[in-house]
Queue: 4 jobs
Job 1
Amino acid sequence: MRREEDRTLAEADPVRGPGSSRTVQIVVLSEDILTAQGVEAHLTRDDRVLVLPPDTEERPDVVLVITGEVTDRTLTSMQRFSRDDPADNPLLMLVAEPPTAKQLVRVVAMGLVAFMPREGTTLADITDTLCVVTRGAASLPQPLLGSLLEQIRTRRWNDPAAEAGDGPRSFTSREIAVLRQLAAGFSTAEIAAELHYSERTVKYVIHEVIMRHGLRNRVHAVAYALKQGLL
């Protein structure tokens, strides 16, 4: 399993609870057939996982993309599973070389919840991360999250009218304080200590933000707040 310091915002959200007993449906996309078959065979050994074919017409819960460099072809293969309502997109896991800043924004919009560097990622890492994301959490390395946040800030400053949404008034001062700590990469325990709240209160605040705005997880909540100009 990856070291905890390499995981950002990776604690289970209260939205989905500690997990579900239902089967997780996953599609594995890779231009390397041997890689795809190996990962599929590994995942199939877990009776909680149902591997769907890449050309499935069903809506998977998770799409796992394994590639070297992220290219336009990679993005197109991911886009096939996107829905009109982003909230309906499957969870997207990406194993690849780090994407560019612009590519990162695109894949986050498609539902990215986990990134693993191609070099050094094992089958066990993929299984561990799948467990994390199906609990409603996310797994993004700190440098990648920093790049995402910078892209969102830059876009907002270049177009202040973009994605005005329902505005800052829809967030309380306590919610903003917690989201700022999340954006800095702190855990709920660290946020609780910093803001002098109980850890349960911090988790409740995050849960309320996610539910009220129809967001997917903590990463999405931070990105949404940045778009509103709150962070």
Job 2
Amino acid sequence: MRQARNSAALWAATGNSRGHEVIRRRSFLAVLGGERAGTRILLQEPDPDAHELAELTELAGRSAGPVDVEDPFSSTDLSHLGMRNWQMPIMVRPPAPVPAPAMEVIRVQRAHELQTAEQIVIEGFELTRFTPYRPGEMFPTTLTEQPGVDVFLAVLDGEAVGAGVTVVHDGFGSHYWVAAPSAHRSRGAGRAVMLGSLAPMANLPVTLTASRLGRPLYESLGFTAVTSSTWWSSQ
């Protein structure tokens, strides 16, 4: 439930900063983007009723671009949408001290820093929908002005080598979009980003949804898998 709420906070902030329509219902939040950003739907309850499910289906069907649905409860069958699906673990870290990172980690404050983080995330997650690159399309300049949202960069020898986003909402923290350029993977950039961005949230429980490759790192930082989230995607 906490992961659901924090994901909704992130995507509402992202949608608002992009100027996209944000729809809130009891059981889901939807952000309606354009041809490249697509539609993002986040289930907020494990039991959407027939009317909510019909609206969700209609929103997915008329999307101008790709559709992504996140179900942290893994309880709603969306196979009728004809999309592929997979599961990833939701992990939680209790409040605890955070060691210092091995490299400098900065909180993004300037437009060029945000663009650097944006490019790292697009490359790291292979978000081909955002290529060719258009500055500010994924991370608009107003993103870090949204309540509870921060973007971080890991810097080594003057070069940005990792990026990540955090959200603090209702007493919980969450991590998103932790990435490193291909030239710096498996060289400590991801760990540095995590440590540097965890530090301001050390007194909070923190959640994240882990990829298979990222899970060992998160476990080493004190995160424990508690359940599985089901993701559906048209791509």
Job 3
Amino acid sequence: MLYSKIEGEGKPLLILHGFLGMSDNWKTLGTQFAAEGFQVHILDLRNHGRSFHSDIFTYEAMLQDVFEYCQANNLDKVDIIGHSMGGKMAMFFATKHSEMVDKLIVADIAPKYYPQHHQDILAGLNAVDFSIKPSRNDVETTLAEYVSDFGTRQFLMKNLYWIEPGQLAFRFNLPVFNTNLEAIGKELDANLVFNNPTLFIRGGASRYILDSDFENIKQHFPNSNIETIPNVGHWLHAENPKMFYELSMAFLKK
């Protein structure tokens, strides 16, 4: 069963993190949603955070994980927020189990195919040699040789934890990511459609959702709107959490 953080009472709201993320990334926003009358379930998807590791890493497998999580927690009808890989996962879930999803929010990802583009990040992560028992500073120094953006490095550093005193490790399943990265870019099949209200939120400085993607989005999600948060990149919910929260709440409470 997937690890989750559950907070609040009311209508169930699932939050699905992006690639190399985890539930902790959404803790502050999750508390805000809970205060507005939602029972917030922030999940760690397989091979991420505190959830189990598996050699199988596909959207089909993750979809089944989330379905079984909903069944185990008696969640018959939910709203979903998903970012990046979690947004693609949310799209698959909503189109495959539309009877279970009331409203859907997709953060900075489109239904299209994405080619591999995490090579520098994975190279940096693989360059970290935990056998020499590096400190947190040592790990960041290694990552900085491959990942120039400070915010991205801090995002990756959140995955560090102490296995035992003096021994750090990453929480995610890096070996499986090394061999299954192509799966993350998978597009939605042409026949998959979700007719309930859907909100796409994109970063104004991000290139993940382009104007040219709008037609494809409408084909899969005919009852959708697209909002843009200006001057933020792919991690829009972290760069401007206030506007992300306001757009999300206006949509969820409508």
Job 4
Amino acid sequence: MELTVLGSGSAMPVPDRAQAGYLLDDGDRSLLVDCGSGVLQRLAGTDTGYEGVSTVLLTHHHLDHVAALLPLLKARWLAGEEHLEVVGPAGTKSLVDGLLDVHDYLDGRIDLAVREVSASRPFAAGGFDVAARETRHSMDGFAYRFSPPSSDAEAAAGPLVLSGDTEAFAGMARFADGADLLVHDCSFPDDVDVSNHPTPTSLGESLAGAEVGTLLLSHLYPHTGGREREMEQQVAAAGFDGEVRVATDGLRVSL
């Protein structure tokens, strides 16, 4: 399984970071997680392309995670693709219906399926096995843990965790324990007073003792520019003993 960071940015755009979006690919199947502004252009630059993504999994419904959802639908329609499935937490159907009410000429152009999931049981999305965990954010949402189709591991023990937008807390550390890669929201440096998102020290403290191979800091606001190395060091100093890296658009990680 390979993870490609399509968008490592936030609701405040910067030139080198699109909004939230991640592509999972195992060679046969592809899954797009979140679809913020700029993600469609990033996706078009991959071998998979928007033609190869028929399932989108949403962590939550904030605009910087869903802004390119209808542009993806339209691009697939114009490219001759016939299907798109949108999977996400409660309210996903209302979100999609509302978007189509505004852009009603897109309604019925392709076979569109919408599925709402919960954290009570694992599920499949785009062929990947997925477990969900509620996050702590200003909007209800999920973090997800993934196991590729070729693996015998259950989703809850899969190698990849994407946090979505969330504060750092012990429950997230337990959810990610044993993962090879945890992509976690780390939106601001330590000297920014913020809620609903972690800073490096709060994230490192929450993950102290967790067995995670690599921590990838993502969902980065402009405030983090030029301070990436400092943030990596602060996470480690607070107690996380795995590898720490800052996400960049286009980064690929094999799992």
